[in-house]
């Protein structure tokens, strides 16, 4: 098992990042929020989870250890594979997921692509006693007004959106920023506005 990867970011694509470790480029499948924090040429350390299938070995990278644990836990629910688990971590922060499960909030879970009404109810039923209470973890990333705008804009462009679409999405989520913006949450909100357009 590979617990984490530390290396220079060689490339960032729409769904993954390549980190050079000891002369080998490791591709890590990541959420848009994690990809937005990575810059080619900079060193990064990402907690990882390896999913072994008969025909593939896939390495998933995460912004923090909590996100990794949630990714691994939700896969223990019936019908949740790594793709749906990654979609869950992309749309919901770990504490948002814990709150949704604790309060039987099916509507929040169905915002995740690939999870319908029955799937959400099954996840709640199977994980309610195991996921724990919200930890208050992942404090909002303190970023200046201009800094968060630039990070979200770069994240969207790194995911293949045009400059114009990225600017519109950043403007659309600006009211949600507040005094201490959470870049990951704002990027997720921007992606939601673009998917509706």
Automatic annotation (TrEMBL):
Keywords noted in UniProt:
Cytoplasm, DNA damage, DNA recombination, DNA repair, DNA-binding, Hydrolase
Q: Which residues form a coiled coil?
A: none
**In which domain of life is the source organism classified?**
Bacteria
Residues annotated as domain Helix-hairpin-helix DNA-binding motif class: 72-91, 107-126
Q: Is Signal included in the keywords of this UniProt record?
A: no
Its annotated compartments are: Cytoplasm
Q: Name one GO molecular function term.
A: DNA helicase activity
* InterPro entries in the cross-refs: DNA_helicase_Holl-junc_RuvA_I, Hlx-hairpin-Hlx_DNA-bd_motif, NA-bd_OB-fold, RuvA, RuvA_2-like, RuvA_C, RuvA_C_sf
Ranges for the region named Domain III are: 144-197
Similarity comment: family membership:
Belongs to the RuvA family.
Q: What does this protein do?
A: The RuvA-RuvB-RuvC complex processes Holliday junction (HJ) DNA during genetic recombination and DNA repair, while the RuvA-RuvB complex plays an important role in the rescue of blocked DNA replication forks via replication fork reversal (RFR). RuvA specifically binds to HJ cruciform DNA, conferring on it an open structure. The RuvB hexamer acts as an ATP-dependent pump, pulling dsDNA into and through the RuvAB complex. HJ branch migration allows RuvC to scan DNA until it finds its consensus sequence, where it cleaves and resolves the cruciform DNA.
Domain remark in the UniProt entry = Has three domains with a flexible linker between the domains II and III and assumes an 'L' shape. Domain III is highly mobile and contacts RuvB.
Task: Indicate the quaternary assembly.
Answer: Homotetramer. Forms an RuvA(8)-RuvB(12)-Holliday junction (HJ) complex. HJ DNA is sandwiched between 2 RuvA tetramers; dsDNA enters through RuvA and exits via RuvB. An RuvB hexamer assembles on each DNA strand where it exits the tetramer. Each RuvB hexamer is contacted by two RuvA subunits (via domain III) on 2 adjacent RuvB subunits; this complex drives branch migration. In the full resolvosome a probable DNA-RuvA(4)-RuvB(12)-RuvC(2) complex forms which resolves the HJ.
Listed name of the protein: Holliday junction branch migration complex subunit RuvA
Query: What species is this protein from?
Result: Nocardioides hankookensis
């Amino acid at each position: 098992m590979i617990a984490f990867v530390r290396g220079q970011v060689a490339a960032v694509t729409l769904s993954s990042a390549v980190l050079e470790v000891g002369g080998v480029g490791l591709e890590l499948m990541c959420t848009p929020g994690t990809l937005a924090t990575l810059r080619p040429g900079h060193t990064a350390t990402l907690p990882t989870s390896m999913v072994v299938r008969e025909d593939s070995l896939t390495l998933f990278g995460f912004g923090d250890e909590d996100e990794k644990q949630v990714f691994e836990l939700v896969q223990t629910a019936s019908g949740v594979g790594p793709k749906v688990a990654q979609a869950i971590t992309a749309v919901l922060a770990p504490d948002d997921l814990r709150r949704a499960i604790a309060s039987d909030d099916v509507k929040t879970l169905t915002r995740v692509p690939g999870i319908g009404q029955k799937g959400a109810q099954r996840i709640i039923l199977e994980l309610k006693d195991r996921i724990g209470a919200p930890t208050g973890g992942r404090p909002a990333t303190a970023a200046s007004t201009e800094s968060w705008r630039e990070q979200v804009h770069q994240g969207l462009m790194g995911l293949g959106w045009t400059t114009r679409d990225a600017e519109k999405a950043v403007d659309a989520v600006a009211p949600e920023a507040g005094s201490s913006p959470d870049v990951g949450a704002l990027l997720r909100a921007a992606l939601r506005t673009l998917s509706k357009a």
